[in-house]
Amino acid sequence: MLSRFMSGSIRNLEREYNCTVRLLDDTEYTCTIQRDAKGQYLFDLICHHLNLLEKDYFGIRYVDPDKQRHWLEVTKSIPKQMKSQPPFTMCLRVKFYPPDPAALKEEITRYLVFLQIKRDLYHGRLLCKTSDAAMLAAHILQAEIGDYDPGKHPEGYSSKFQFFPKHSEKLERRIADIHKTELIGQTPETSELNFLQKAQSLETYGVDPHPCKDVSGNPAFLAFTPFGFVVLQGNKRVHFLKWHEVTKLKFEGKTFHIYANQKEDKKIILTYFAPTPEACKHLWKCGVENQAFYKLEKSSQVRTVSSSNLFFKGSRFRYSGRVAKEVMEQSAKIKREPPEIHRAGLVPSRSCPSITHGPRLSSVPRTRRRAVHISIMEGLESLRDSAHSTPVRSVSHGDSFMTRSRSQAADVGGSTSIISDEAYSPSDSVLPTPVAEHRSVEHAAAAAAAANGASGSIQEEKESEAGTPTAGEPGGGEVDGGGRAAPRAGAPLSEVEQANKFVLSVLRLLLVTVGLLFALLLLLIVLTESDLDVAFLSDIRQTPEFEQFHSEYFCPLRRWFACRLRWAGGLLIEEERAGAEEEGAPAE
How many CA atoms lie within 13 A of 108 on its CB side? Predict the structure, then answer.
C-alpha cells in the first residue's frame, strides 16, 4: 500500500510519461503522453502508426502490480488506470474477434488478426484436433517462408519452428507434407486468408480463457467468443450459450453468475468462482463488453450495467464504443489504396528453436522497434490430469439443469462437443500481459511445478507476459497468509455463511439509509436558515418547533463555531507577528 501511495505521489509531480506499447508483430512503439491523456488518445496514436482504420476489433491490455490483466478504458485517464510507476508498458491485442475474418475490408486488418490467432495457437488458447493443427501450421509456413524449396528447406525443416505448446514428430512430418504438396503457389495473402477461415471454424476461435472453478471445485475455463459464452473443461466444451440467450452477467466477490433464457422459457443460472475478486470483476467487465459488442444492433442501445440489484452496492460499468454491426457498416465505406505491409519470414534458431510471432509492419523513423523471438521452454505446463474429466455440476440456484458424467452429458445450449484430442490447457493465456523485458530460465522449472499445484509462476509469453500463479490449476488450492490451506473456492456456501451475508446486506442497507436521512436533515437546516424566499421554507420558519430549535440549538452552536474560528484566526495572526519580529531583529 505504501509503495502504491508513493508511486501515485511521484506521478502527480510529473507532467509527461513515457509509454511503450508492444505490437502484435513483437515490435515496440514508444511515445510520450500527457498526465491527463485518456486511453482513446494512445489508442488512436497506435492505430495511426499502423495505418489501421478497422480499429474497433483491437484494444490495449496492461497488468497491474498484482498481476491482474486489464483492458485500457478509452474514456479514462491513462495514469489513473495504471497502478505502477512510469514508464508504462502495454500490449496491443485483438479484443473483439471478427465473427467472419474473411469479411474484413482491408488486408492490414486481416494480417493483424492473423498474427493474433497465430499467437493464440502457439500459447494453447486455440486448441484443435491434430488434423486441423497440421493444416494451420502449414498455412503459417506457406505465408511466411513461401513455397517449399529443397535447396533451402532440408529434411525436418518444419521441426525448427514451434507452432504449438507441444507437438510430436508425426505432426511435424504431417505439417511438412501439407506444405510441400497442397499449398504450392499460394501467396502470403491467400495463405493468411485460408488460415483465418480454418481458425474461425474451430470451437476455441476467439477464446481468451479465464481460469475458474465450478461449484464442485473442478477447474474450468470461461470465455466469451463472437458467438456466445463458452465453458471448457478437459478437452470438451461443456457449455455454450448464444448471446441472445444470455440475459444478465453478475458478480459478487469471487462469485460469477450467468443468467440465461433458453427454449420453452427455460431459465438457467451458471455459477463459477474466480481466483480473486479482481479477476472476477475483470471477467464480468469482459463479458459486459463482449455482450454489448456482439449482441446489440446500435451503440445507442448500450446501457450502464450494475453488478448488483441495489444502486449503492457493487460496480457499475458501461461499454464505450461501436457495436459489431456498426463496425461492419463503417468498414464497407472505406475507400483508399491498401496500405503497404512488410512481411518477414520465420526465423529458426540453431541453439533453440524459436518462432517470431510475426513480421514487422511499416515503421515510423522515431519509433524504437525490437524483434522478439519466443524461445521454446522445455518446462511447458503438462496437460491437465484426469481431474478435468470428473463429473461436473454447474448449478447454484433454482432448478437443476445440468449433470454430466464420463458416459453421458446433457449440455446447456447445445450438445457437448470435443474440441481437441488433448485437454484444454493454455500455458500462457491465463497470465497477465506485460512487462518483463528479460526472463530467466527458472520459469521453465516453475511451469512444471505449477502443473503439480505449486504456487509460483508458470511459463510465460516472453515478450509481453509476466508470470503469476495459475489459479485454475487442478489441485492448486489457495493458501492463506499463515500458510494454512484455505477452503477451495468451488465449495458451496453453508447456511451460516449465507445467513451472515444476508445480515451484512441488511446492515449495509440500514447504514446507507441513516446516512441519507442525516444528509437530507443537514440540507433542510441549511435551507431554512438561509434567506431563500420560498413558501415552503417560510412555512417551516413560522412553526413553533423551528423557532425553539433555532433559539435553543442552532444559534448557540453557531456562536460556538464563530468563537472557535476567531480564536484560531487570532493564533495565526500572533504567529505571523512573532515571525516578523524574529526576522526583523537580526536586521537591526
Answer: 22
CB-count burial class (<10 Å; 0-12, 13-18, 19+) for 568: exposed
Quote the CA–CA distance of 66 and 343 in Å, as a whole number: 36
Running DSSP on this structure, what letter comes out for residue 330?
H
Max distance between CA atoms of the chain, in angstroms, equals 106
Q: How far apart are CA 388 and CA 474, in angstroms?
A: 8
Q: Pairing state of beta strands 16-22 and 88-94? A: parallel
In what helix (H) or strand (E) does residue 220 lie, and over which residues does it extend? strand 219-225
pTM over 0.70: no
What would the grid cell of residue 330 be? Answer: 463503417
pLDDT tens per residue across all 588 residues of the chain: 445 444 544 445 568 899 999 999 999 999 999 988 999 999 999 999 999 999 999 999 999 888 899 999 999 999 889 888 888 999 999 999 999 998 999 999 999 999 999 999 999 899 888 889 999 999 999 998 999 998 888 888 888 888 988 878 899 999 999 999 999 999 999 999 999 999 999 989 999 999 999 999 999 999 999 999 999 988 888 999 999 999 999 998 899 999 999 877 788 999 999 999 999 999 999 999 999 999 999 989 988 888 766 555 668 888 988 999 999 999 999 999 988 887 755 555 333 333 444 333 433 333 333 333 322 222 223 323 323 333 333 333 333 323 333 333 334 444 576 776 666 666 544 444 333 333 333 333 333 333 333 333 323 343 344 433 333 333 333 334 333 333 443 344 456 767 777 888 888 889 989 999 888 888 877 777 777 777 777 778 778 888 788 788 888 888 888 888 888 888 888 877 877 777 665 544
Strand partners, 454: none
Which residues, at least 6 apart from 552, have a Cβ–Cβ distance to it below 8 Å? none
Closest Cα to residue 19, out of 97, 95, 72, 96?
72
Nearest to 229 by CA among 241, 214, 221, 220: 241
* DSSP-derived secondary structure for 435-446: --SS--THHHHH
Residue with cell 460496480: 315
Q: 314: helix, coil or strand? A: coil
